[in-house]
Amino acid sequence: MSRLYCPFKECNCEIIPISKGRQVMLPVQAYEEMKIMLPAQAHQPTGKFLVVNDVWDFDNIGVSRGVPERHQPGGSIGFLDGTICTIVKTEKYLICAECDRGPLGVVCNVTRADGTEEALHLLSIESLSTGGSINEEAAALD
To answer: Which top-rank group of organisms is this from (predicted)?
Structure first.
């Protein structure tokens, strides 16, 4: 089972097994709008995020301060199964609970097509490590 780890070599603690969430695609500008950390290596982000419904599904995650109004993205989340949700508000940043670095993702409130609202934890897959080399990490996430 593939797992996602804190990307910092000094930490490298396990954040979550990939199987605990659903993959979604967000527009690439979401990284900048939400101020999500990306690796220093020059590569094109794809917008892959892991959606986790319950904070208790994480092995090791922290939640930081509220997201300032100026970093509130609009738009939609497109699930790979075709479901669409509208982002209402981004509440908090997700950080590594061990080293307090990030942000690795966000907690946001969304509205589903049927009008129901829920909180989702969006974890940037590209901000994390799978514990292998960069090429191994890319293969593990596809």
So the answer is: Eukaryota
